[in-house]
Amino acid sequence: MPGPGKAVGPTDNHRTAVPELTRGLDSLRELLITSSDEMVGSRRVMSFVSTLDLAAPFLHATLSSAQATDAEVIAQAMAVTRQSGKRQYIWSWSGSSLSVECWQQGFEMGTHVAGMVAWPDADLPISGNLVQVTSHEEAELFRAVHLDMCPRGGGQEEFVHYFASDKVLLSSNVKAIVRLDGDQPVSVGLLCEGEHVTGLYWIKTRCAFRGRGYGKDVVNGLLALARPGLPVELQSTTAGRRLYQDLGFLDLGLISRWRVVT
């Protein structure tokens, strides 16, 4: 049995339990991102293009389904780049044939993230200092944490107001949480439910409050709110992998993000 605060993992090969990277972003599709599938005529390849011109790989992403060839993925990503005029990134498992093909094409490799998955336990302990976002005022608390951590003058404030707008945070398939220290919001995160998977996004803790377990409180709170029976996925920075492993997430491996060069 898992210990306190643990999520339950599958008993089969976890790398194949959630085999397609497309699922990791599918939960955001209707809320934030315009799909470009029909524009380039391939339903085996999924591309996202947002309305913001920011270097945010998960808002300008091309991913392959299990049936797509490497050549189809690259062709679609290049077509989306040309037609949209925006940056486009290919997400692929590190060391895969698609990653090798991206390197051979001369695409620029960005940072790696770790793909992680958990099946939540119904009996997770929940902190009493968590607030679920159900109003504009609570959404302001959520935004305050991210705005406090934005580099000044880099355009990231627009990104926060887009990704953490009232429309998103109060959407029917989104559940957002704020962890308080007294009356001060110090850690936040949200989940977004898709048809086949729940995604965790934008988990942040203010620098001065790290190391106190507040991030774990937020993750446990989100897992407790997740729809039973659905896997919960996230993409973690390499620095954050240990936190999620301690919470019972299974590490599926590193994902490379390649910027498309046309």
Write out key terms for the chains shown.
alpha+beta; disordered N terminus; 262 residues; 11-stranded mixed beta sheet; 32% helix; 11 helices; Aminopeptidase
Please provide a brief summary of the model.
The chain is an alpha+beta fold and 262 residues long. The chain has helices at 14-17, 22-26, 29-32, 37-40, 70-84, 97-104, 136-148, 156-163, 166-169, 214-225, 241-246, and strands at residues 34-35, 45-49, 61-64, 89-93, 108-118, 130-132, 174-181, 184-193, 198-205, 232-236, 250-259. An 11-stranded mixed β-sheet has the order 1-2-3-4-11-5-10-9-8-7-6, sandwiched between helices.
Describe the structure.
This protein has 262 residues and is an alpha+beta fold. It has two domains: 18-113, no CATH class; 120-230, 3-Layer(aba) Sandwich (Aminopeptidase). It has helices at 14-17, 22-26, 29-32, 37-40, 70-84, 97-104, 136-148, 156-163, 166-169, 214-225, 241-246, and strands spanning 34-35, 45-49, 61-64, 89-93, 108-118, 130-132, 174-181, 184-193, 198-205, 232-236, 250-259. It has an eleven-stranded mixed sheet with strand order 1-2-3-4-11-5-10-9-8-7-6, with helices on both faces. Helix 5 (70-84) crosses helix 6 (97-104).
